[in-house]
Amino acid sequence: MSLFSELRRRNVLKVALLYAVTSLIIVWVVDHGVSGEVLPIWTKEFVLLLLVIGFPVALIFAWVYEITPEGLKKGMDVDQTQSIVYKTGQKLNAAVAVLGVLGLAAVVGERLLPEFEFVRSEPVEEIPLRPVYDSPLGAGVPREITSYSMANGLKIIVWPDHDIPNVVMYNFVRAGGRNEYPGITGLSHFFEHMMFNGTSELEPGEFDRIMEAAGGANNAYTSNDLTVYQDWFPRSALKTIIELEADRLQNLAIDPDVVESERGVVYSERRLRIDNDNFGRLYEQMVANAFVAHPYQFPVIGWPSDIENWTQDDLESYFKTYYAPNNCTMVFSGAVSPEEIFLLAEQHFAPIPRQTPPPPVRTVEPEQSGERRLVIETDAQAPLLHVAFHAGTAADAETRHMELLLNVLVGGSSSRLHRLLVEEEQLALNVGGWQMEGFDPGLVYFYLTLPPGADIDAVETRLLEEFARVATDGVTAAELKKAQNIVLADFWRELATINGKASSLGKFDVFTGSYENLFSLPDDIGATTTANLRAVAENVFRKNNMTIGVLRSPESEQGDAE
Amino acid sequence: MRSLRIVCPVFVLVLLAGPALAKGLSLPEHERVELDNGVVLLLSEKHDVPLVGLEAIVRGGAVTDPEGLHGLASLLAGVMEKGAGNRDAAAFAEAVDAVGGELSSSADLEAIRISADFVSRDAELLIELVSDMLLQPTLAEEEFTKLRDRSVNLIKAAKGSDPGRLLPAYGGAFLFGNHPYGNPVGGDETSLAEITHEDLIQYYENYVGADRLIISVVGNFNIEAMKERLAQAFGGWRAALVPGPEVPDAEKQSGRRVLLVDKPGATQTYFWAGNIGVAIDYPGRAALNLANTVFGGRFTSMLNTELRVEAGLTYSARSILRRPSQPGAVVISSFTETATTVEAIDMALSVLGKFHDAGLADEMIESARNYIMGQFPPRLETASQLAAQFAMLEMYGLDTAYVDDYGAELAAATAESIATVIDDVYPSSEDLVFILIGDAEAIREQVAQYGPVTEMSIDEPRFRPQPE
After folding, report:
1. Which of A337, A555, B186, B412 is 20 to 30 A (C-alpha) from B212?
2. Which chain B residue has the Cα nearest residue A109?
3. What does DSSP assign to residue A396?
4. Which candidate, A366, A544, A394, places its Cα nearest to that of A467?
């Protein structure tokens, strides 16, 4: 009897085949377990090693032992006439066939069906009190954060946090002032209002009534870059909120009567924030003058004539393009698990169709080549002085450096400009500043309120000296350290609430491409040097890059201001 | 795309866990210690992020401002930050900013309040700074003068940039008259100018001391160590020289009267209409909060629905309850285009009438209850919020049941108990004190229908109209 036929008789070959098929399936399952993060990463190597070691053992076992009706016996002890190796072989054949079919189905299924993945079960009943960050430097993307991209392009990020029984939802819609043009300025902001004003399923006002009756509250804001919708609710309202959000994305009614009434509300908001507010009036003109080409020049609330005149067609086409799921990122934070959010999302958001992406914003603001000045004359006891410089985008490394520099200049009572201009020389009642952080290069903006009767030119001269000084000499190591501590402490404060978590996560995801970048912020801030700050000051604080604006009483009345 | 097939068992578990989590309406454990000199310490540990929140309250505030020197408590609160212990103003600010701390002191009607939020590794510095501010403020004359003059100018600036913000100052003065709750907390241009450095020192000695201090700390620290440190810092402090204030009840006002504050060229009118309401310890507070939520306390409230959502007359209309230790103001407030001033005010008054007449349907009560319960937990989420809450309860002599029993009280409120509260607390539309800031020339004649009009210019250096 040849070795080969004896191998066959003793089913060794079939066992080998069965072993191989079974091994493949085990490896496939383990592989998915690892990628789904349900198993530790080393499991795959470990299982492979076990299977390799087990292969010769299984073969030797098959050679030596036979299955008999009395149980397992050594082959040499079995009466060959009573041997049932043939029957065992048939069973092995069947097992191989079944496993083979299953394996094939799994492989084919993986292609045809949605991807198979293990999910990590969140211990929802546990209230996790562990610090989110273990390393003193910050670091580490919390493992409990999960993101999910739906077939229609809607991206959803979930950060479970069971500290309080509440949930926050942010929907970041990529629609803002930068997507507008003359004739439709303010339309993004107007939609922020219309999104609360009824659908084909719900009458105007029902959205808010249902949400508040379920214990939820909402708000929204519009910027140059985004329209952001916020819901704050007890977790018992989760399903209601998702249904409401899906309904208005899918079925928004743009009722002409409601549009007319809402124009009035928006006009009231404009009067409140701009027309009757000296700060708002000056800010609007500053931005309109600082940008000559890029749509950041438009006031987010819109020019009055546009608020009065945009048409039904403008509204309908804007909604279709910008409120498509592929133009939105939703973030949930609070007492939820990613699994329940994804399940609800599949039920409610999946039917909303993807749309052609919005046209890109092509216009690049040309380099400014000389300072720009403007004056607003109005009844103002206290004059205002604003200064703006062109700077970077949210994603630029320089923008992080500018954030630190802004803290050196205007962050807190010990900051340079506050100490000099407000405390020591008393040229200003207050001084502050911020930077626009958006998709396209924005402005670094400073504002001062001056005492009645102030010598505005003298204050300006003093202020510009300080910009020149920091551009030439930079900042001290102590100033940098202080700014780093302020930014880091603010980072912690933001992440102390579920609202801050959702807001930060979403902004980083939308503006930098990944929410994970939020967690490198502490390291990035820590690694910034005084040379970085001097470089960004030198690059930005140039006279040719500056717009300067004054709001004051008409010249003839200035003497009366005292 | 991922499949969700195997999610289902997990999802079922989550649904089961839901109701258990939804009942989170109670304060965490805290410890109360009263030192021999009367200082009350309130402490609670919270370890989710490495922060410490502190709230220090000195009872007193604007109600203890001497007559004619309104804004003194507020100025003192400001100057306390401008140098203390061995740090001058710049060094003090530097110490706070250098560690990324947040620290501010301010006054309100009944307290001077220091609120701080520091990274927990700097807790020792935080206590040093706060105890220096309270026990050894420098109160330098130069810093006092600077802050006083700047405060005067900031009031002038607010008249141009944000006149709506001044409504409570005009409203308090016109509604309460010479009652201490009529004192403008930040003072006015005239009273601030009267205050001298000697007044400041005297006020500090008279009204700031251990017998009226509450220190509340919540955050990432060890409670025993923190207690010891606070006792060491504050245990030896003196008492204030003058007894704390006894504020009398203000009388509800009958009839209507109008203060018209002229801001020439304004394109909108800001309005405020109110009367005397109730105090913090009002026994029907749960029913009252339900009523106010429905009337003007949320987006879908009656006021906001009629004035904004349906009529498009304003961006916002609301009702406000101020509840200090004695009855405070109950107010309706909004703003509208100059031309629609009367339309908007009439509409607000008609909503007030409906609120009195129709009462609240059960369905609406349920909605308001869910809203209050649903929005409550995020107000007690951070260490700073909890520190402020503990301090507030102590200041008004309320215990934790004020929060812990709130859910049960909301559940127990009925349409009848709410109707009683509405009539008890909200004025009828015939008994209202009006403040209007707007272009007097355009609205003067029309608003005379709301009662006798007193007119003053927004440029006048006081919030209270002067007798002719």
Report:
1. B186
2. B3
3. -
4. A544
A23-81 pLDDT per residue, tens: 777 776 776 665 545 566 667 677 777 888 887 887 787 777 766 656 666 655 655 55
Full domain range(s) for residue A60: 3-112
Distances (CA, A) of A275 to A283, A342, B158, B252, B340: 11, 44, 14, 37, 16
Across the strands, what pairs with A372? A547
Same domain (yes/no): A333, A276: yes
pLDDT, greater one: A106 or A555: A555
**What does the domain layout of chain B look like in residue ranges?**
31-234, 257-457
CB A314 within 8 A of CB A114: no
A271/B314 CB distance under 8 A: no
| Strand residues in B46-132 grouped as ranges (E) | 51-59, 102-107, 111-119
* Count of other CB atoms within 10 angstroms of residue B248: 10
Whole-number pLDDT of residue A40: 60
Residues linked to residue A220 through DSSP beta bridges, in sequence order: A229
Residues 6+ apart with CB under 8 A from B22: A165, A234, A235, A236
CATH number of the domain at B257-457, please?
3.30.830.10
Contacts of B382 in chain A (CB under 8 A): 493, 496-497
Residue ending a domain, among A58, A89, A112, is: A112
Chain A CB contacts of B375 below 8 Å: 215, 217, 232
Mean confidence (pLDDT) of chain A: 86
| B110-149 residues touching A, CB cutoff 8 A | 117-119, 146, 149
Same domain, yes or no: A160 and A72: no
Per the structure, the count of domains in chain A is 3
Q: Which tens digits make up the pLDDT trace of B364-423?
A: 999 999 999 999 999 999 999 999 999 999 999 999 999 999 999 999 999 999 999 999
Instruction: Tell me the pLDDT tens digit for each residue of A163-187.
Output: 899 999 999 999 999 999 999 999 9
Coil, strand or helix at A73: strand
B163 close to A (CB below 8 A) = yes
Angle between helices A312-322 and A256-270 (to 10 degrees): 80
Q: How many CA atoms lie within 13 A of A13 on its CB side?
A: 9
pLDDT (mean) for A178-199? 94
Tens of pLDDT, residue by residue over A401-443, are 999 999 999 998 999 999 999 999 999 999 999 999 999 999 9
The verdict on a CB contact (< 8 Å) between A234 and B102 is no
Interface test with B, best of A268, A448, A488, A495 (most B CBs within 10 A): A268
Answer with the residue of higher pLDDT: A110 or A175: A175
Residue of B20 and A284 predicted with greater confidence = A284
A69: exposed, middle or buried (Cβ count in 10 Å: 0-12, 13-18, 19+): exposed
Q: Domain with A188 in it: what CATH number?
A: 3.30.830.10
- Give me the CATH code for the B31-234 domain, please: 3.30.830.10
CB neighbours of residue A21 within 10 Å: 18
Last residue of a domain, one of A112, A135, A168: A112
For B257-309, write each residue's pLDDT tens digit.
Answer: 999 999 998 989 999 999 999 999 999 999 999 999 999 999 999 999 999 88
Nearest partner of A460 among A450, A475, A470, judged by Cα: A450
Q: Reduced to 3 states, what is the DSSP secondary structure of residue A330?
A: strand
What local confidence, expressed as pLDDT, does residue A366 receive?
Answer: 97
